[in-house]
Every structure is written in C-alpha cells, then in structure tokens.
Amino acid sequence: MKIILDCFGGDNAPEEIVKGALLALKADEKLTLVLSGDEGKLLPLLNGAEAFLPRIEIMNAPEIISNEEIPTAAVRNKRESSLVKGLQRLSDDAETDGFVSAGSTGAVLAGAFMFVGRIKNVSRPALAPVLPTVNGGNVVLVDCGANVDCRPVQLGQFAMMGAAYAEAAGIKNPAVGLLNNGAEAGKGNELTKEAYEVLAGLNINFAGNIEGRDLISGAVQVVVSDGFAGNIALKTAEGIANSIFALIKQGVSAGGLRAKIGAALLLPTLKGLKKKLDYNENGGACLLGLKKVVIKSHGASKASSICASILQARDIAAGGLIKKIEQGLSQF
Amino acid sequence: MKIILDCFGGDNAPEEIVKGALLALKADEKLTLVLSGDEGKLLPLLNGAEAFLPRIEIMNAPEIISNEEIPTAAVRNKRESSLVKGLQRLSDDAETDGFVSAGSTGAVLAGAFMFVGRIKNVSRPALAPVLPTVNGGNVVLVDCGANVDCRPVQLGQFAMMGAAYAEAAGIKNPAVGLLNNGAEAGKGNELTKEAYEVLAGLNINFAGNIEGRDLISGAVQVVVSDGFAGNIALKTAEGIANSIFALIKQGVSAGGLRAKIGAALLLPTLKGLKKKLDYNENGGACLLGLKKVVIKSHGASKASSICASILQARDIAAGGLIKKIEQGLSQF
C-alpha cells in the first residue's frame, strides 16, 4: 500500500506532518509513503528515522499553497506545489492508493476535481467527515460543505457513496439516515421530501429521517445532507462541544477549591471525553466520488491526526471504496 | 398586563402549568392570568392559592388537543379546546396581551395563524427560540422550523422581526448574523447569498455571516436562518449538549472512586452549567409576525419554564414587540 502525503499543508506543517508519517510507518510495516514537499526542508526532519527510509520516497515540490489563496487559481498556477504534485502523482501512478493533505479545504477540493477527477456518472463529489458517536461508534456525514445547493438525486448519490465508504471501513450493512427537520416520513423541505423517495428506492439500508439531535447518537452510521445543512450541523456540533468544555473550565475557576479538586479528580474522564469527541482523532474527511482515495485532514492536525488519516486512507483503499462506488452507480 | 395560559398543553399538564401560573403571579403582583382549560380539573389545583384568585380568571375549555393529532384538523374541529379558546380570546379581547402554550408546536402554529392572524405585509410568521450564550447572554434564532422553504426577502423579514424581538426584550441595537457555511461575504448557497444582500440593505445592525460554531458564542444577539437549517442547528446543539452530559455520567460510572468523588465535588458547577444551557429556563419560542404575542413553551416544560414563558410574554408585550415589527415592515 502506497499513500502520498502533502507535507506542506496545514497549520503545523511540515514538522507534525512528517512526525505523523513516521508514526504511520511504525504502525504498519507494509506501508510505503510518498512525501510531497520541499526536499531541502524535508530531509532534516528525517534525521534519526533512518530505519524508515527504505519505505519513504521524497517527491520534491518546492511551492506551497496557503489558506489565503483563491483555491482554483492556486491549484492552476502552482504546479510545483506539494498539493498539486501530490494529486498529479496520485492520478498518474497506478501504484499509489491514496492521498492525504491538511491543507486548505478549497484547494484540496479544487485540486482533486482537476487532477484526480470524478468517477464516471458521479454527479458531484462530496466531503465526508467521520464523527464519533456517544455509543463508541462512528458516523459518516455526507456532504459537509462541498455542495451547498443540491438536487434530490445528488443526495441519493451521497447516500450510496456514504454507505460504500462505511462498508469499505468495515461496517456491514450500515444504516443510512436523511438529515431532516423531523423524524416522521413526509417531513422536510422540498429537497429532503423528494430525496426521501430517492433514498427509499436505493439498494441501501435506509433508516428514514433523522433529526439534528440524533447526529451523534449512534442511531445510524451514515447521515446524508446537502452540503449547506451538513456544514451547519457539523460546525454547530463542534461549537457546542467546545463551548461546553470552555464553560466547565470557567465554572471550575469560579467554583473555588472544591470545584478545582473535583476537576482534578475528574480530569482523566474529561480528557478521555474530549478525545472521544475530537473528530480529528478519527482521521480526516474523505472526498467521495473521485477516481482515487483523497483524505482532507483537519487544518490544525498534529502528528496523531495525520497518522490516523494515513491509516484511514490505507483502510478504505484496501476496503475497495472506489469499486463499491462504481458498482453503486448502476442504480442511477 | 393580562396573559392567557393554555393549561392543557404539554407533557406535564395541567399540574405543572398551574404551578407555573402561580409562580408568575407571585413574581409579579400586577400580573393577571386567564387560565384556559377544563374548569372542573383546574379548580382543585388552585386549593391553597386563594390569595391569587382575584388575579385569576378561569375560562372553561373542556377539550384537549394532543400531540398525536393532525394540527390543522385539530384546531379546526376542537373549538372548545384550551388551545383554540385561548387563542380566540387573545384575538377578541383587546385587554389581553399575550398567550402561552406548551402544547403541540404544529397546533400552536396552525391555531395562531388561524385565530390571531399575521400582521399585514408579514410574508411568513417565524418561530424564534432564545438560546443561552457562553458569555452569559442570549441569542434569538429566527426561524427554527415554521418555514422550511424560504425566499431571500423572507429571511430579510426574519432579520427585522428578530431584531425587533431582541429590542423589545431590552437589548439595544442587537447584532444580527446570517447563519451560513462560511463567515466571509460571498459564501453561501443560493438562498443565503441573496439574503445577504437583502439583510445588508435593512435598517438593522447586520453583522454579516456567522457559522454554526458561533451560534451560542455570543458574537451576535440574533441569528437568521431558513426554518430547515435553523431546525438542524437548534436540534444539533440540543443533541450535542445532552450527549456530552450523558458521556460525563458514563465516564464517571466507569471511572471508579476517583472520578465519583471528583464528580461529586464538581456537581454544583456541572448543574449550573446544565441549567445555563437549558433553553427552557430562558422561556419559550416566540411566534413572530402575529398581531399579538404568542409563546410556545417546550413540551416538557415544568413550572419554572411556564413561569419564565409567562414573564417573557409580559416583557415583550410591554416592550412593544408588535409595534416595532409594524414599523420595521415599512422597509419591505
């Protein structure tokens, strides 16, 4: 298995990215990595990692695409960037299985569309993060922002691709829910009412509508949404979780000695909880509908998230994601 | 000030509703209440509350509308229900200032449209809950589900009505944000891109786009959304908050003695936090755009929530909500 890593994307590039690469190589001794980025800067970071060098290829790519650049212009103009060279290599080299970047979401999307390309008959690729659920499982959210205006049939494709993704990740017969403003059939806006009928006609385990409050309850393994509502749900979830931890901290500082001792004793529980809710720990968001596996890791990714994203790319490539999506498309 | 209370709506009717009424009468000695419901069942609940009787009028309404009924049919057919008689009275009696119900949302909406009616030139009334913010303030969300398909101009009216509501509740020059999938101007789906231009042209304190993660950060006092995305945001927020508290409990039981002592010491902090995040404590959702003040209290409301909703109806009626909305409509 050979994964390409964009070493100059994200807030903590290149140090944490390279550290993440080494963690992944340590975790899987059959893994090979292509590190895309400025060779002169990458080589010193590999000091002391000589044991892994036989499984590392450095692909020199001296340019960097920043978060501030206009995505389409950046990927068009910076052909020597770590992002573009990595995606180009993914497209050209049949031996490579996936690509991971913590760079600008817009640039990863634009670059992936341009250089990797859609699977034939996929209407719109979708961005699908994996969220942890309360019962210790995971849920895939499709789409979380790549497509803000959708037609019902596109939500049907998101559902099929989300189910294929969950299956490629080892979940048998994943339950698929349609994000809606009520659980009963017949609820919804124009889009979700029509999408309900489309999803009900697909060869997936369709569990009907689910409300925002069931997003991470574990009721379903795949949640389907247009990218606008999906983005609102994802960011609201993130915002509320962060707010609650901030409020606990505030309450502890205001609560005097008693609260401080309590918090200290409860610390392992709270830390475990925070880790559980941190979707970075679960790897990145997969871009579904492309000819190859592309993972967008969080911009703030540290080594552990990068490692998780690499192993995630490996797993879903090995799980046959692309083939499963190609097969599912016969329904459309 | 005279408020009408539907005593047979909600999970805890009529006992908690009547208890809430008495709490409100105790809190405000100038308040008068009309209790709508089955007289034979209400009278025994007033035993021991003789001191308040001069400020209580019981309006006999023997029928009950349940959550299971089809809203429009129920309000049309059950003219003797506590809900319909209450709304009818609100419409007919110029001495009444507001109406509160914890009954079925659909029935309250349908009944209010039918018997109270829209303010002239209001395109669509909207349901606006008040959420607590991390910095100790509040934020009004308009709309949270009354209108799942909207046009840009309707979002403009929601913005104006939300600002009027916040002002009637005592917030000067409230900042209004448009719920969107990115903070930068130019972001959004077809609806929010156009709505942005509408909101920018209004005589309100428009703060631009806000993302889901800023819903309860306190960045703005009014968040505008179509009812679909607003519902997703509201229920996701509720679900995540509940999930985190469930996980803390779980972590505490699994964490052994150390975690249990920690939790016990931290209990006042956690309880205060839960209360802070419980939007029931902030009163109910206001139905904006009607000729009079109508508050939908949460179905699970207990006495304290009912009391909060009654005082909320009093405050925004006294704050001139209806007049402010009528004035704001001249912009459309």
List the helices and strands and how they pair.
The structure is a homodimer of 332-residue chains.
Chain A: E1 2-6, H1 15-27, E2 32-37, H2 39-45, E3 56-60, H3 71-77, H4 82-92, E4 98-101, H5 105-116, E5 126-128, E6 130-132, E7 138-142, H6 152-168, E8 175-179, H7 190-200, E9 205-210, E10 222-224, H8 227-254, H9 256-277, E11 285-288, E12 293-296, H10 303-318, H11 321-328
Parallel strand pairs in A: 1-2, 1-4, 2-3, 4-12, 7-10, 8-9, 8-10
Antiparallel strand pairs in A: 5-11, 6-7, 11-12
Helix pairs in contact in A: 1-10, 3-5, 4-5, 6-7, 6-11, 8-9
Notable characteristics:
homodimer, 332 residues, alpha/beta, Isopropylmalate Dehydrogenase, 2 domains, 7-stranded mixed beta sheet, 5-stranded mixed beta sheet, 12 strands, globular
In which order are the strands of the major sheet of chain A placed?
A: 3-2-1-4-12-11-5
What is the first-to-last residue Cα distance of chain A? 31 Å
* H/I helix tally of chain A: 11
CATH architecture group name of the largest domain in chain A: 3-Layer(aba) Sandwich
The value of Rg of chain A in angstroms is 20 Å
The percentage helix of chain A is 40-55%
Overview of this structure, please?
The structure is a homodimer of 332-residue chains. By secondary structure, chain A is α/β, with parallel strands linked by helices. The first copy, chain A, has 2 domains: 1-122 and 289-332, Isopropylmalate Dehydrogenase, CATH 3.40.718; 132-279, Isopropylmalate Dehydrogenase (3-Layer(aba) Sandwich). Helix content of chain A is 46%, strand content 16%. A 7-stranded mixed sheet of chain A has the order 3-2-1-4-12-11-5, sandwiched between helices. Chain A has a 5-stranded mixed sheet with strand order 6-7-10-8-9, with helices on both faces. In chain A, α3 (71-77) crosses α5 (105-116), α4 packs parallel to α5 (105-116) and α6 (152-168) packs antiparallel against α11 (321-328). The mean pLDDT of chain A is 93. Chains A and B meet through α8 and α9 of A and α8 and α9 of B.
